[in-house]
Design brief:
It contains five helices and four strands; from the N terminus they run H-E-E-H-E-E-H-H-H. By secondary structure, the chain is an alpha+beta fold. It starts with a helix and ends with a helix.
């Protein structure tokens, strides 16, 4: 009985073996009738459709993996924060992750910094321009000193 059910679920094409299907399924109850197209055009269209379906499936799997990784990371950070706090220690954990969904910034802990919920400039990804300003200032002073020394 199981073999009969399996063969029904695996067989979705009602066309005779070797013929190109005349419909494309667009959903559970919607399909496009291609019976008016020549067989070579149907074959090309069905090939493109299959490639697109594979691309969508691949993208869904990639996004599912990213969600799983983020879920796991946040779970680990949450458990670590909880354990450290239960041990009576102060803890602030920060995590920043860029993914296809966007940027996720997390602060956990039992300190004032965690309660404030503000990431530092380096944690937000902002570049610290201070060293560049200092170097530019030193170069400007050297140029001015050389110009005045003449």
């Amino acid at each position: 009985m199981a073999d009969k059910n399996e063969s029904k679920s695996l067989t979705t094409n009602t066309e005779p073996l070797g013929q190109v299907p005349t419909t494309i399924p667009l959903g559970q109850s919607t399909q496009i009738d291609l019976s008016w197209m020549p067989e070579d055009q149907r074959r090309a269209l069905l090939t493109d459709y299959a490639k697109g379906a594979l691309d969508v499936s691949k993208r869904a799997q990639e996004l599912g993996i990213e969600v799983s990784v983020l879920r796991s990371t946040l779970g680990t950070l949450g458990e670590t924060t909880k354990q450290v706090a239960q041990d009576g220690n102060s803890v602030t954990l920060t995590h920043v992750q860029n993914s296809q969904f966007g940027r996720t910034e997390v602060i956990m802990g039992n300190t004032d910094a965690a309660t404030a919920g503000k990431l530092s400039r380096s944690q937000t990804g902002e570049r610290d321009w201070t060293p560049y300003y200092v170097i530019a200032g030193i170069v400007a002073l050297i140029v001015i000193a050389i110009a005045l020394g003449r």
